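Deliverable D4.2, example record:
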Amino acid sequence: MEQKLIVSGSPHIREDVSIPKIMYSVVFALLPALLGSVYFFGLRALFITAVAAASALGTEALYQKVMKRPLTVRDGSALITGMLLAYNLPVSSPLWLPLVGSFFAIFVAKQLFGGLGYNFINPALAGRAFLTASWPSIMTGGWTPPLRGTISGIQSLTITRLGLDTITSATPLSLTREAMRVLTDPGSAQGQVELARNALQQLNQGGTLKNLFFGGVGGCLGETSAVLLLLGAAFLLIRGYIDWRIPLSYLAAVALLTGALYPLGVTRVTPLFHLLAGGLILGAFFMATDMVTSPVTPRGRWVFGIGCGIITVLIRVWGGYPEGVSYSILLMNVFTPLIDRMTRPKKFGEARR
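Output generated by the structure prediction step:
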């Protein structure tokens, strides 16, 4: 029997992956961290997330209706933006804060640039940066203590004398920054110096690292439990929805740099502390890997992750904020087109320039 060769146009390899399928898989991967935030901070964490998500969905639907564009609120991208923005807020935030932040993230950082696929920076991080610049006292101070779990072994009296109210009102990174300020200030009293050294030593102990891994420390809603974030990240990695190069290079850069600075005394907390504290896990797996704002080339993703790691360490150690994850990703988002251009693979048969 004669067989016919059928020739068709590209693409020749097809998958059943769609934008809604990917987006709702990310939503599913974020749910463990959401449940953890409710466990550690109470139902207010759920209310803040709901307000942020509703604002994101409503803003996108209203803008597209006014501009007479196809409605895309069902694809899940706006929902992810709202959830990620909420994960970057303290639980003590007034409910209007996630409302305003999601509006800015969707309207300014996403829709004004053309919608999904055209935004050049991560919308959720843009919303967080806007809120931090507009209301810094809410975004960087007045942390609410978790209902379950504290930073093990550090007494409130120690933190009070260092200049913070209580241990439960400080994040681990803000405590680190305050202790380092005392140590590097020539005018610090000897008693304050001893208290700062004691606080930093206890931050490196196993009890503190355990709380950072499982949760129960002061911080933003979605960054307190590393294990719950890693659980969702593992799901996305297995499904192939995020590339392992960016989070691996990001975390490795932070670990290597802080590992080099720790013996020199530039930073007094271990690389493991830097990996678990703050929003590094959340940023490395769920925001730096954004398909729209991260490089598409394999080599470019290595460059992107390493750049994020370097900027994060620079801000944490020498910058004005105790945390640098958000700004590091936003800065590298800006360089993504250049990174893609510089790391573009050579076509088969193309002559070297």
